[in-house]
Every structure is written in structure tokens, then in C-alpha cells.
Amino acid sequence: MRARPWPQVPETTGRAARAAAAKGPYPLAMRVRDELGELFADVEFAQAFGVRGRQGWSPGQLALVTVLQFAENLTDRAAAHRVRFGMDFKYALGLDLDDPGFDASVLSEFRARLVAHNLEERALDLLLAALKSKGLVKADGQQRTDSTRMLAARDLLPAEHYLDSGYPSAELIVGMKEGFGVTLVTPVLLDSSPQARSGAGFGRTAFAIDWDNRQATCPRGHTSTWWSPTVQRGTKAIVVKFDKETCQPCPVRDKCTRAKNGGRTLSLRAREQQRVLDEARAQQTSQEWRAKYATRAGVEGTIHQAMAVTGMKRARYRGLKKTHLEHSFSAVALNLIRLDAWWNGHPLDRTRTSHLARLDQQDFNLTG
């Protein structure tokens, strides 16, 4: 392979493609070429190709075809057909109108080369670099996802990361803040003790914790007699106990413990984890926090779009590396689709209204 710059859009191709797009939505392929230019340079894929032999198709162009293929959920044969007959694809690739394109097997061979040389994420890396250079993506912003896996190596860690309630833990919240400087905005599980659930008893927050002296003080002013580090369900914890001789005659015992013979027992996390957990539980009950967390709801639409548009819910290929390649190209395609909507000023979709609700909203004027 001999790296070469992408060809400029031929005048006849540009004129024909723009004329065809004049009456409808501007095609994604053409928008990507206009806004991002030579998105995938040949030199970025050089290690996957030899230096001898007949010059083949540009790997950068094949990468763009693969992205557009995933953006429209096309088969290899359909993608090759679009290169041969689609003016939007020819415009994006800088091809003449009479360019014959390539055989569909070229795409399969291209993917195999990427997998063999560990270039599964190269297209995604190049897209992120291009978007960073244009100021469209930057660090220290807000990120909403449905998982906690982020790649700090890309230097794109957000200041705030919005998660749903299925993932967070006190250990994770503290670890992300201390290790990466990322604040997790996520609902944590509330105090599940009977006293806290009833709303009329003394939950954990009613007790003052003296971490330095390893003691807890109850609402009546009595101090604990037992402080023991332990492990609960694989997590480090601290068990605190109050003497039964103190708890049994207490006039508010029914609000504090259900134990018939012993005293009150508390389970705590490590000091910093417990502090973060208490703060998170207090904050998530406020209207301000709920309004802030509503930002996360948009990721569900992103996930649905990924499933419906790119078809990534069902793997196209067999093997982990090939599936990883598929997911990486799907991510590039999805990012470009969402960028295209932003470039075109496409409004956000309204909340979906069910068929039954739409019928209920209609005013039927029936005449006999």
C-alpha cells in the first residue's frame, strides 16, 4: 500500500449529487465529507497492508465505506452496490460517476486485516481526534452512559458521569473521584434498615460516628461497646454494637431495634465510603438533584438508536475480536448520525405517545 491523499470531489459528481440532494434531507455521507473532509487517512492503516504488489483500494476510503455501511445497517453486497451506484457514496469518497467500485469481498478482507493487526478501534480513535480538533468533543463536561467503563487514555474523561441505579456503589463513587477526578451522578440504594424504611425510627444517620475513637453515639447519648471490621458480601464493612443492658430498658427501644435479646447493631462502610454514601442519599431526595439527574434519560434514546439503526444487538460476526470491531464501527456510525442531526438542526424527538393515548387525545366528530 502506498498512502495517498483522498481525491477531491469531481466536479460532475459534486454537481449531480448536490442536485439530487436538493429536494430532500442532505445525505449523511455527503455531510461527513463536507464537515470532516479526509476523516480516515491511509497512513493510519498502513501497518495492516504490505508495501509491494498492485495498488488496491484506499484503506481510509474502505474505513469510511464500512462506517456508512453500519450507519445504514447494510450487508457487504449492499454497501458495495451503494459505492457503485449511489451518488452520495461517490461524493463522500471523491469518485467519478462512472467509477466501477469494488467487489463486496473487499470489505470482508479489510475487516480481517484490521482484526489481525489489532486496529479494531482505529476508526473510533480517528473520529474522536477529528472532533476534538474541531472543538466538538472535550473533556471535563458531562457524560451519560449506561455503564461505568470509560477510557481515560483518550483524555476525554468527563467531570460528571451520569449512571443508572444498577451500577454504583460507595466504593466505585470514591474510586472514580480519587482515581480519575470524575463525579458520579447516580442514585444510590437507600438505607434498607426497618427503622429507616418506616420513617418513624432511628436510621443510621441518627447516630453520630466518632471514627477516630471507633465509637458510635445513639440519639439518647449512649455510646457503642463493640467496633469490629469485617467483610460483608465481599465488601469491607464495620459492625458496631450497643450493649443490651443499655438498650433493653431504653424508653425509645421500639424506634431503634427489633432485637428481642440484644442491643442495636449498625453496619458501616469504610470512613470515606460511608461519608459519600450518606451525602448521596441526602442529595438525591432534593428536587434540584432530581432535575439534574433527568439529564441521564437521554442515553436510553441513544441505546435504542444503536439497536435499531446499526443492528448491534445481534452480532454480525463470530469471535470476540470481530464483534469488538463491529461495536467500534457501530459507535463511529452512531456518533456521525447524531452529529448529522446536530449539523442539520434536527430537533429532539418528543416523548413517545402510545397509540391508545393518541386516540384519547383526538376529538372525534361523528355525524349520522
Describe this structure in a few short sentences.
Helices cover about 45% and strands about 10% of the residues. With about 375 residues, the chain is mainly alpha-helical. The protein has a domain of about 80 residues.
Number of strands: 8
How does the major sheet shape up?
3 strands, parallel
Rg from Cα: 29 Å
Mean pLDDT over the residues: 85
What portion of residues belong to β-strands? 5-15%
**What level of helicity do the residues show?**
40-55%
Q: Give, in order, the helices and strands.
A: HHHHHHHEEHEHEEEEHEHHHHH
Task: Give unreliable regions as ranges.
Answer: 364-368
Total number of helices: 15
- The coarse silhouette is elongated
End-to-end C-alpha gap: 77 Å
Q: Could you give the order of strands across the largest sheet?
A: 1-2-3
Look at the helices and sheets and give the structural class.
Answer: mainly alpha
